Amino acid sequence: MSLQWTAVATFLYAEVFAVLLLCIPFVSPKRWSKIFKSRLVIAITSYGNTAFIVVICILVFLLVDAFREVRKYSVTDKVDLTNNPVAIEHIHMKLFRAQRNEYIAGFALLLCLLLRRLASLLSQQATLMASNEAFQKQAEGASDAARKYMEENEKLQERLREAGLEVPEVGGKAKASAEEENKTLKGEVRQLKDELDATKKALQKSDSDVKAMKKQAENLTVEYDRLLEEHAKLQVSTQLETQLLGQVYITVQLLYYGSTIVDTM
């Protein structure tokens, strides 16, 4: 394997490890959000967009080059090479390497996009969870304040009755002011509940997206392992065929030279 493909394969292994690390279930999105917002990660990602575009361009170029190599060496069905078994094995070996490089570049490109999207979804989920908690606390605070105002209003009316003073009726200014305040508080509570419901729906959608991305990453890892096993089997079979054809070629040459010597004698 050449130097550039060794680097791409190493990058692919690092991407697989990063995806599996982000899919760990017992690490909460809040923890990942804190890690993403740390000074070290911010310093690294300050040039992240430029580096991401450069990496994508390099992987696309390598993928196109690997595809071109596959097309180049896919000529065994079009060209008759039965008289030259060594050339056939050489072309097969080049074709297997080109296909391997195509798989490596394709999976590296796909996992690069998947990793970026997965990190973005985790950050969004952490933000939605924080907003959900803030809205919930705000709604609970508004409900407690409304309940407290109503209790104080009732206690004040009881004290006024005990003192022999007339308590304003429903049409009174004090009662009207209290009712308006209660209506305002109830409206705020209702608005906060609506915002809380919307935040919960967005959080559930983000959670489903993260689960789908995790499942897709696991499927990609399984498919990549299967392709590696098939590639190893193909390499073993190719080596066996090369050795067998080499022995047959040597035997044919020896028989040819032997028959030539006999005819000469």
From TrEMBL:
Segments passing through the bilayer: 6-28, 40-64, 103-119
Location in or out of the cell: Endoplasmic reticulum membrane
Ranges in coiled-coil conformation: 132-237
Family as reported in the entry's similarity comment: Belongs to the BCAP29/BCAP31 family.
UniProt GO cellular component terms: endoplasmic reticulum membrane
Protein purpose: May play a role in anterograde transport of membrane proteins from the endoplasmic reticulum to the Golgi.
Membrane topology listed for this record: Multi-pass membrane protein
Taxonomic placement: Eukaryota, Metazoa, Chordata, Craniata, Vertebrata
Protein name, as recorded: Endoplasmic reticulum transmembrane protein
Residue ranges of every copy of the Bap31/Bap29 cytoplasmic coiled-coil domain listed in the record: 188-238
Species whose genome carries this gene: Astyanax mexicanus
Principal place of residence: endoplasmic reticulum
SUPFAM superfamilies listed in its UniProt record: BAR/IMD domain-like
